[in-house]
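Ticket #4471: structure export looks truncated?
Reporter: QA, pipeline team
Priority: medium

Steps to reproduce: submit the single chain below to the structure queue and open the exported record.
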Amino acid sequence: MSEEEGERVGETTEGLQVELFHPETDRSPGDTNIQKFGFDVHPQVFPISAVVITAFVLVTILLGDQASAAYTAVFDFVNANFGWFYILVVNIFIVALVYFGLSKFGKIRLGGVEAEEEFSKLSWMAMLFSAGMGIGLMFYSVAEPMWHYGDGTNIFPMVTPNTAEAASAATTVTFYHWGLHPWAVYGIVALGLGFFSFNRGLPLTFRSVFFPLLGERIYGWWGHVIDVITVFATLFGLGTSLGLGASQINAGLNVVAGVPQGVASQVGIIAVITAIATISVAMGLDRGVKRLSQINVWLMFIFLAFILVVGPTLYILNHTVASLGTYLMNLPEMAFFTGANLPAEQAGGYAGWAQLWTVFYWGWWIAWSPFVGLFIARISKGKTIREVVVGVLMIPTAFSFLWLAAFGGAGIFAQRNLGATIYETIYDQGYSFAMFEMLESFPLTTVTQLLAVLLVTTFFVTSSDSGSLVVDHLTSGGKHDVPRTQRIFWAITEGVVAAVLLIGGGLTALQTASVTTGLPFAVILLVMVYSIYKGLSEEYEILQSQEFQERVGEIAEGEKEVDTTGGDVVTGIHDSESDD
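Actual output as written to the record:
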C-alpha cells in the first residue's frame, strides 16, 4: 500500500474513532478560554488556582513560626486519623491496574485503533522514569535503608537493629515504599487520563475521567472543582520533591565546596535551578524535557555502574537477591500493615512509624500522581493498555529495586565493615547528607559527589519542566499545546511554592503539603477507577460489535491491501478474547 493510501486509511479509521467513540457534544478542549497577554487559560480554573496559591504563599510567609506549628498539627492529625485509608486505597489501585492490563481490555490502544506512537520506547521510558521519582531515589536510596537498619522498623519488630538481619529487613521495607505501590498510583492515573483524552477526544484534564458518571456536567463546576484540586495536589506534591532536591544539592555543595547548609541556601538553589528549568520548559517537550530526561538516564546508569564495580559488588548482588526474596514473601503483610496491634512495650520506639513513613509516602505518591500520571498519559498515545501497565508498573520498579539495593547496600556495607558513620550523620545532620557520606567510603569521592549533585540538579529541572507542562494542561481547559508564556509562569510558580514551603516549616511543611492534599485526591482516584472500568467496557463492547466490524469491512473493501479480517491489524482486539 502506498504512503498516500495509508494516510487515507488512517484518516478513515480516525473518523470512525470519532464517530463511534467520542461523546456527542459541542464542547472542545479550551473552547471557553481567555486568550490575553500571551496566556491561554480556563476562565475559572486558572484564576481560582492562582488566587488561592498566592494567598497560601502570603499567609505562610506572614505567619512564620505559627505556620510551622500549624503544618505540624495538620500532619499529625491526617496521619493519625486517615493513615488506614491511604494504605487501603493504594492496594486497590494495584489490583485495578493489574486487572485492566491483563484482562480483555489490555489490547485497547490509547488514541484509537490506528494511533501511532509519538515517542520511541527508549525515549518514553527515559521521560517516564525522570518524571516519576528521580529526585526521591537520589534523596532516600541511602538514607532510608540506613535509617531502618540503625533504628528498626515496626514491620519487622523482632529484628534487632544493626545486625545482618536488619540489613535485609531495611532494604525490604525500602523496596515496599518505592516499588509496585507508587507506580500503581501513577499507572492508574495515566491510564484514565490517556484513555478519556485520546480515545474519547475529551480535554486532557482530570474532569474528563468522570465523563461516564457526570456527562456534560464535567464542563461545569463539578469539573472546575476537580481540576482545581488537581492543580493543588500537583503543585504541593511537586513542591515536596523540589524541596528535597534543593536540600540534597545544598548538602552536596556543603560537603564539596563548603556552601552553608540551611533554608537560605536552599531557597537560593531553588531560584537558580528554577531559572534553568524555565529556559528548558520554554523549549518545549521534544527539545527540552525529552533531551534532559535522556541525559538523566545515562547519568544514572553511569553512577549505578560505578557503585556496582567499585563498591562491594558481591555483597550488593547477594543483598539484592536476599532483599527481593524477603520482599516477595512479605509483600501481602507489608501492604496492609498499619501498626494497629503493636505490643505495648514498643509504644515508645515504634508508635507512629507507619504514619511517619508509609502514610507520608502514600500521600506523596497520590499528591504527585496528577503530575506524573498526566505526563505519562501525554507521552503514551499509541500504546496499548497492556504496554502502559507493563511499562509503568514493572520496568521502573525493577530498576528502582536495583538502584536501592546498590546504593542502600553500599551504605550498609560501609557502615558495617568500613567504619562509616552514615547513620550517625543522618541523625545529626539530616537525610540529605546520607548519599555524600556513603561516597566518602569509596574511590573518587569528590568526582562521585559532584556527579550526585549534577544528577539531583538535572532531575530537579526535568521534574519542574514536566510539572509545568502538566499544570498548563489543567489550567488551559485540557489543551495539548499552550503558549510559552504560560509554561514559564507555572515553572516559576512551582519554584516559589517549594521555596515558601521550606521557609514556612522545612521538611515538615513539605510532608504536610503532600499528605494533606493527597487525602481528598485519594477519594477522587477511587471514583476514577470505576469510571475507567465503565469507559473501557463501553469501548470493548463497541470494538466487538457487529456495527464496528461492518464499518471495518467497508474500509477494507475500499482499500484492498488492508487486512480484511477486522482482527488485530485494524482493531487491536481479537475475537478469541471476548470471553475474558
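Status: closed, not a bug. The export was complete when the record was re-opened. Leaving a note from the reviewer for reference: The radius of gyration is 24 Å.
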